[in-house]
Design brief:
This protein has about 170 residues and is mostly helical. It folds into two domains: about 110 residues, no CATH class; about 45 residues. About 85% of the residues lie in helices and about 0% in strands. The chain contains five helices and no strands. The relative contact order is 0.09. The mean pLDDT is about 85.
């Protein structure tokens, strides 16, 4: 498993655990705030999405949304620190780690995409060079055959036209 997968899995598991513990706290406190339920459900669903292989195409979107949510809650925790320092510090500690790991994921993802692009460009360049060398070699062999008198001018032009493609 790659490092980027470990980072993504950490953020996903953290979000699932946060959601489950949040729901437990809501049950204990008997709190019925709809926004909290929606937020915890969103964290749980996004955390599950990044662990489902056939949803690979939306893993990046899930990570972006989780990063945004963790960042927003971190900012709210900093604001709360001015009113209730202990609660704000608790929230800060709770949301700083997944936010940092989300940022690490985005940096690693970007670097991985750049590497893949560079490898693809190198492979295409290598492939094009081989094709052009092969075509040049075939045209030279064809010209040599014409010069030796093995084929006529018309045959040479017809085969050259077939090789070049027009």
């Amino acid at each position: 498993m790659s490092k980027i997968t470990h980072v993504k899995n950490f953020v996903g598991i953290y979000s699932i655990v946060f959601a489950v513990l949040g729901f437990v706290a809501l049950i204990i406190d008997k709190t019925h705030e709809p926004i909290i339920h929606i937020l915890l459900t969103l964290f749980f669903i996004l955390g599950v999405i990044v662990h489902v292989p056939f949803l690979l195409k939306i893993h990046l979107v899930s990570m972006i949304v989780m990063g945004f949510l963790h960042g927003s809650l971190l900012i709210m925790s900093i604001i709360v620190m001015f009113h209730d320092c202990l609660t704000g510090l608790f929230g800060f500690g709770l949301f700083i780690l997944p936010l940092v790991f989300s940022i690490v994921y985005f940096v690693m993802y970007s670097n991985d995409k750049k590497k893949q692009k560079n490898l693809l460009v190198a492979a295409l360049d290598s492939n094009n060079t081989k094709e052009s060398n092969t075509l040049t070699d075939e045209l030279n062999a064809l010209l040599a055959s014409k010069n030796r008198g093995e084929i006529t001018e018309e045959e040479y032009l017809a085969k050259k036209k077939d090789l070049i493609g027009y």
